[in-house]
Amino acid sequence: MTPPLLLQGGRVIDPSRGLDQPADVLVQDGKIAAVGAGLAAPAGAEVRNVAGKIVAPGLVDVHVHMREPGNEDEETVASGARAAVAGGFTAVCAMPNTDPVTDNQAAVGFIVRQSVRAGLARVYPIGAVSVGQRGEKLAEFGEMVGAGAVAVSDDGRPVASSHMMRTALEYARTFSIPVADHCEDPMLAAGGVMHEGLVASRLGLKGIPAAAEEIMVARDCLLADLTGGHVHLCHMSTRGSVELIRRAKERGIRVTAEVTPHHLTLTDHACEGYDTHAKMNPPLREAADVAALRAALKAGVIDCIASDHAPHSYDEKEAAFDDAPFGIVGLETAFAVAHTELVRGGVLTLPELIARMSTEPAKIFHLPGGTLAVGAPADVVVLDPAAQWTVDAAAFRSKSRNTPFGGRVLSGRAVLTLVAGKTVHDVAASAAP
Q1: Widest pairwise Cα distance in the chain
Q2: Whole-prediction pTM value?
Q3: Is there a catalytic annotation at residue 308?
Q4: Please, which pLDDT band fits residue 433 given cuts at 50, 70 and 90?
Q5: What domains are there in the chain, each with its CATH number?
């Protein structure tokens, strides 16, 4: 049994209860036992002084690629969970585009078992919409949910068939889970490797137009309206998508959306020099898109931040730009990038950022966590907003190193992460001689 822990003297930010004040947090028996000023430590408790730090609900990432089974050289559930807790995440949702695809009860159960075995972040499987992600036959949602799946998605591929998307939304509604869609018209985007614009023209690369995303955003919103199902739109990247989501929400359609730290901070100019670390799907867009995404996140039109952590091997990313795979790792940099660019940049307050990275994603996917309410699971992160550090991919806990933020000086990082009251990441302990 883990002894009680008293986090003393920190600034407690709990968006689930509108709390932002100096307070102590007592963790006991894997749960939040008390939150308040001047709490007394129970007998045998560890007391941790966190003055000058932020105590918040553990961060939650609803879009992570763990690569296991099939590509364990790039990432495993254990290594991904280790990267997650180092980034302050206590829960992550694992996308199903593994090999074999997570499209059945046994495959979902495997991810759950690997998560328990690792004993780090909680890893919640997302099941595939279609068998093999081939878009031909609907997977068995009920069995996957029974085994622990919290959503369904064919992410990595769009659900191209409108009929299948309609059926998926109707079927998922039965189990009160969202359908998370990768919004891309595959015919319009075919062969594209970056955003269609002036930079792509100058580099001689085939572009992916913003309309390829927006067409599917519009379709998904219409189908959510038709079915009453909950559609969750993955990694939004364009100002047109923002406007479509705003209109859908105004009409009361059950749509939620996420945006990545890289789409909030980088533009297609990052692809200059044919830098494959800036190759991702959806692609980095233009400055006007970044501005629209930031404003939408602030206003709640976009609900949450998700990393879209997508590990790849060094050799794969060293290929020519046309041939290199899409995607970057993000679990260990997500909070710091968002804090540096959005909070220090005056776009969001720190409580707003924590809400978008913890409370809201937990709420959207109906996950435990995202709160420091008494009796809630003690999934807690202690953040040091003043910590300055330089991104060194060689020091990542992830097995992969594909980041466009290498060498970037960032502010803010997790110094202590607790899952069910157990310490799973502790900077002070790792720094001790």
Answers
A1: 68
A2: 0.97
A3: yes
A4: low
A5: 5-55+378-431 (2.30.40.10), 58-364 (3.20.20.140)
* E strand segments, 110-254: 122-125, 152-153, 179-181, 194-195, 207-208, 231-233
| Beta-carbon contacts of residue 97 (< 8 Å; ≥ 6 apart) | 65, 128, 133, 154, 155, 156, 157
Q: Which secondary structure element, helix H or strand E, spans residue 56, and what is its range?
A: strand 54-57
User: Which tokens is 161 given?
Assistant: 């068939």
Amino acid at 205: L
pLDDT at residue 432, as a whole number: 58
Length, in residues, of the chain: 433
- H helix or E strand, kind and range, residue 81: helix 77-86
Catalytic position from the list 181, 308, 379, 384: 308
Question: In terms of Cα–Cα distance, which of 180, 186, 170 is closest to 149?
Answer: 180
* Structure tokens given for 273: 């020099």
CB 100 within 8 Å of CB 107: yes
Q: pLDDT band at 125, cuts 50/70/90?
A: very high
Closest CA to 394 of 384, 385, 407, 381: 407
